[in-house]
Amino acid sequence: MNPNSNPQKSIKTSLLIGAFSCLFLLPNTELKAQNVGASPEYIKALTAEWTGERFPDGRPKVSDSILERLKNISIEEAWGVLRNKGYQNQYEGDWQIMLPDEAMTGRVVTAQYMPLRPDLEKQVKDQGVEKEGRSPKGGTNSWPIDILTNGDVYVADGYGKIVDGTLIGDNLGNAIYAKSQRGVVFNGSVRDQEGLSEIEGFNAWMKGQDPSYIQQMMLTSINSPIRIGRATVLPGDVVLAKKYGVIFIPAYLVEELVLTSEVTGLRDEFGHQRLREGKYLAGQIDSQWTEEIKKDFLNWLNNYPGKLPMTKQELDDYLKERNY
């Protein structure tokens, strides 16, 4: 060894030469662009607590029967269940609603919009068209609509933009309803509201409407997490949209939420009836029930005058695990 050499310096030099050699041995390495649409693997990771059937895109396939039962659940009941589960940021209010007396439920497809930036918009269009096979015709605001299936609700964050922020008009509205048999929830606006109102069955929760065309905004992602006002929304969530607000429910909780809310509704119906009859005092109904009231409630359920919203087996299993 040369007595004037520095062993530590020689080792560092060798490591640097080795690192550069590795780079030159990989001349075909390419950086993969970020997808516009989330991959099934990413959606499955976001919704990992769901154990049931899924769509090909990875979203949970909550049953149609649960979606139908959810329509009868109040916003307060759904909100209460979610808060008890630790989900405190799933509600948004202050909407303009096309058909306020009609509830809408469905499986969420998300879209994120941002103010226009030309270099990013070019990357999004190149990636979407060339790598993901999306339509080169028209604007990118049609891309989320192209992937809708029956029972989906198109939920978009248009960052509250009203003028020049109209995400759809009546042409796209017709396309949405034809594919999903549902409507939209937009933190943004729509145009052609008169034409949209003529689409039988179509409904919309939005922040406003304007006759202007969409300008100076761009689509940046499909089926990624988005923010709708106070709420964080994931693809595959289930939406409950009513006159009094919108709730976004994690798919893995929706069946439990429906059943819990249905039983709460029955408890309230029983309690209100007994209070009107003067059988119990308000304090007795509002506190933990005595064995006498529990027995009275079970007898009332067994003689319920209408059709119960759940099966008898579902009800029996639920009551076994609850101390009411």
TrEMBL record:
InterPro entries: RraA/RraA-like, RraA/RraA-like_sf. The keyword Transcription does not apply. Transmembrane segments: none annotated. Pfam families: RraA-like (PF03737). Keywords: Magnesium, Metal-binding. Its cofactor is a divalent metal cation; Mg(2+). SUPFAM superfamilies: RraA-like. Substrate binds at G169, D170, N171, L172, R191. The keyword Endoplasmic reticulum does not apply. It comes from the Bacteria. Signal peptide: none annotated. Residues 122-135 have a biased composition (Basic and acidic residues). GO terms for molecular function: metal ion binding. Residues 122-142 are annotated as: Disordered. Mg(2+) binds at D192. This is Putative 4-hydroxy-4-methyl-2-oxoglutarate aldolase. It comes from Algoriphagus yeomjeoni. The lineage of its organism: Bacteria, Pseudomonadati, Bacteroidota, Cytophagia, Cytophagales.
